[in-house]
Amino acid sequence: MAEVLLSVIVPTYNESANIVPLVTRLLDAKDAREIVVVDDDSPDGTADLVRERFGADPRVKLVVRTADRGLAKSVRAGLEASSGELLAVMDSDFNHDPVVVDTMRALLAHFDLVVGSRFVAGGGMEDRFRYYCSLVYNMFVRTVLGTRMQDNLSGFFAIRRSALERMDKDRIFFGYGDYFFRMLGQAADLALPTVEIPVFYRLRQGGESKTKYVGVLRQYTRAVLAELAQQGLVSRQLNPILPRRDAQQRGGGDRRSTPPRAPLA
Ligand SMILES: Nc1nc2c(ncn2[C@@H]2O[C@H](COP(=O)(O)OP(=O)(O)OP(=O)(O)O)[C@@H](O)[C@H]2O)c(=O)[nH]1
Ligand SMILES: [Mg+2]
């Protein structure tokens, strides 16, 4: 039987220093895999580089977005342009170790969602100061929203397409990295079988950061509070028994209702 296809979604903005080595590394794995680079029309020519180096490789797809720039919408565009039954999303600057994608793929045989986590044993960040700031901020997100995840902002994950299709994507994919905790919230409501695995963030390999920390923290905090308001101002952890109204609408209010997963080929 043919191996199930894994699509790896890689959003890029000004990543000309990283994208060729990253895609090359991802293609080293010899499994059935496609790489979907979603570039927001980077002025540094990231998309041109992908065309030049991988234009003839049918395993590499390039999506160039010219309007409404943003990380979350790029991730959604990549997921929608992909063909795999298994999906992974990662950063393009080597913060996220490409080797972990192999582990995530293997774990999708047993789980619907695999979350790369800096805050489980074995995880971490090379930048110690950011690690502790993110750790504290994640405790806040987890407590307020009741996601039950240690890392609510990693943006490094793999999911079965069948699980993603059960989610309300319009309510997830907007903003920046905050899409990730909205996705985890829906995964909790749907009672998706989920596992967190350790990931260690190295410093970005080349190029410049797009994250303006104070602005991003302000944006994330607004997004956390908006999400809390959306769920009736009660953390999921404080109210674990009553199925949520919107979860029921999506068909996931009963935590025992997760359908069995199709076996992996
Ligand atoms: N398509 C797209 N990708 C983006 C956008 N903003 C950031 N990215 C990508 O999202 C990933 C995360 O952005 P980074 O700038 O690395 O943010 P960070 O990881 O918080 O910060 P550093 O790693 O320290 O630079 C990278 O792969 C970026 O290229 C965007 O507006 N559109
Ligand atoms: Mg980064």
Write the layout of secondary structure elements.
Elements lengths: L5 E7 L6 H10 L4 E7 L6 H9 L5 E5 L6 H11 L4 E4 L9 H9 L5 E5 L6 E2 L2 H18 L11 E4 H4 L14 H11 L4 E5 L1 E2 L11 H18 L14 H5 L16
Parallel strand pairs: 1-2, 1-4, 2-3, 5-8, 6-9
Antiparallel strand pairs: 4-7, 5-7
Guanosine-5'-triphosphate binds next to β1, β2 and α3.
Any key phrases for this structure?
9 helices, globular, two-stranded parallel sheet, 265 residues, alpha/beta, Spore Coat Polysaccharide Biosynthesis Protein SpsA, Chain A, 7-stranded mixed beta sheet
Question: How would you describe this protein?
Answer:
With 265 residues, this protein is of the alpha/beta class. 36% of the residues lie in helices and 15% in strands. It has helices spanning 19-28, 46-54, 71-81, 99-107, 128-145, 161-164, 179-189, 213-230, 245-249, and strands spanning 6-12, 33-39, 60-64, 86-89, 113-117, 124-125, 157-160, 194-198, 200-201. The strands form 2 sheets. It has a 7-stranded mixed sheet with strand order 3-2-1-4-7-5-8, sandwiched between helices. Residues 247-260 have low confidence and may be disordered. Magnesium ion is lined by residues 91, 93, 95, 204.
Structural class per helix/strand content?
Answer: alpha/beta
The DSSP helix count reads 9
CATH class: Alpha Beta
Bound molecules: guanosine-5'-triphosphate, magnesium ion
The residue ranges in which pLDDT falls below 50 over 5 or more consecutive positions are 247-260
State the end-to-end distance: 6 Å
- The pLDDT mean sits at 90
CATH architectural category: Alpha-Beta Complex
Report the sheet-strand fraction.
15-25%
Estimate the helix proportion, in percent.
25-40%
DSSP E strands, number: 9
The CATH homologous superfamily name equals Spore Coat Polysaccharide Biosynthesis Protein SpsA, Chain A
Output the CATH topology.
Answer: Spore Coat Polysaccharide Biosynthesis Protein SpsA, Chain A
